[in-house]
TrEMBL record:
A Pfam family per the record: TonB_dep_Rec_b-barrel
Chief localisation class: membrane
Lineage of the organism: Bacteria, Pseudomonadati, Bacteroidota, Flavobacteriia, Flavobacteriales
Keyword Transport included in the entry's annotation: yes
Listed name of the protein: TonB-dependent receptor-like beta-barrel domain-containing protein
InterPro entries per UniProt: Beta-barrel_TonB, Beta-barrel_TonB_sf, CarboxyPept-like_regulatory, TonB-dep_rcpt-like
Cellular localisation: Cell outer membrane
Amino acid sequence: MNVTLVGTYDGTTTDAEGNFSFETEELGERELELEGEGFASQILVIEIPLKASIEIELEEVTQLETAVFTAGTMRAVGNTNETMMSSLDVVTTAGSDGDIIAAMQTLPGTNNVSEDGRLFIRGGEGEETSIFIDRLRVFQPYSQTAPNTPARGRYSPFLFKGINFSTGGYEAAYGQALSGILSLETQDFPTENSVDLGIMTLGLSAALNKSWEKDALTTSLAYYNLWPAMQMLKTRDEFTHAPEGYSGEAVYRHQFKNGLYKSYMAAEYSKLGVLYEDINYENLVDFKLKNTNLYWNNSYVHTFHRNLEGFIGFSVAKSDTEVEQMQNDYLKEDWGFNAKMELDWKLNARNLVKLGSEYMGRGIENEEVETNLVSDLDENLWAVYAEHTWYFARKWGLKMGIRSEYSDYVKQWNVSPRVSLAYKINRYHNISAFYGEFFQSPIDEMGYDQPNGFMKSRQYLLNYFYQKEKQTVRMEVYQKDYSDLIRNTTEGKIFQNGIGYARGLDFFWRNNGSHFKNVQYWVSYSYIDTKRLYQDFPEETQPSFVANHNLSLVGKYWIQKWRSQLGMTYQFASGRPYHNPNSNEFMSGKTKEFSERSSQLGVFD
């Protein structure tokens, strides 16, 4: 138990029996704060000097009996009981190849769309998932790639200490995502100074960690070229220029007396050329791509008081892409700016309040060089939000949030309520439920027309969570309803009356070595039933990117003698629908079942 004289550095900790004493030069009426794990924090007014010893009775509130809001949220990195994966898991999961996005696709609620590579969550398009770094929006989180070739996440997992993955039910602090979010938090300070060099068959890399008393710097450079792999492996498409790229990242931190400043910058240049098959053309399609991407993120967290914390930050992003396809040139410029202010106030052990405001500006310009046809879309969006977490009874918790946004692109306000209720059954079992409304601007869906408003989804979630020692079980059922989706007809007209739904069950079971020594494994299964009436669909039907059944089996075996880890991953997805042009029935075709096996051997020093 910590005992502090408010407004000073005077204080101490209690002994095993709860006794404490300390000296101070303060006089008069002062506030004495007591705070410790398992007890409600308390502030007591005392008169200094004390005329006699005092006895204080504290209310016990054990963490074992505190409800946990698990509906829709999975912590992929962290130290809480919500953690589904450790930080090392992200890079040691076979088949992920060190890609955060690929590692997330072994968790429930995702659809493994192997030809795309982005995060598809619970029947939603890839554009319906937003990604954030240090609470700020990332506008181009995926690498640019060729058709039918999966994209990768741009950012190194080693830079992040926290990864919060939401398949629905995310907080009011985040918006503009109909399906879910992936929120990344960069490391504060590196634990040691180091220089790392990497030599691979596909490229080179170098990294530097350097710490001073109040400053720290992490930098990395990388070059990759897949030409050697293309010489050894048979690929479906013929590459005229193997994927090649240069990238660099840097994180600078400065520790102030009561705050921490972080600046993160990432830059990347990539290019490729490929001849690929297209059902609409008799000959192979000649495709060439060049992309330059820049992302800069700045944030500052200030501690006003032990129970009051403020956040301010902004991010800037710009991406330029040049595509040459069948002798036609296409140029795309994509820029974004996000600024956010937030205040977190812990009123007491039972009440927490979060208040914030946000601005986001975006611009997308597409140009067809040959015809000089230009599509130029811009948006300015303002948002305010508030959230109150209330542990109103010993095992109960209620989180109430509201977010409101205005977009000058859709010329409309929205109001997004979100409510989560949690109950701790006992030490190991927890249940929670969630209802929320989510909005998203259709700027990525539009070409040359103006929208009528935001796209919308409503989500209902019910979650069961169990954790005991080295076992974790998570089950969730959900219902998601879509409205105001973009539709385009064969006549070229645009309407915003699309609808849809997604419902299903997610299951996750993890064991960290209690069954077999040095063996970790997890099982992830998702069932989904979904249909949509949107885009050019003539009727409500299941989209081509959704498989009804998705299964992931991940296993890892630690070999202590060799300081090595052997990992294996198996992923399965049932057949997905597609439209056969020779059939009169829309989306009547069904692909074969998808299965993939990966293995990995890692050596650690």
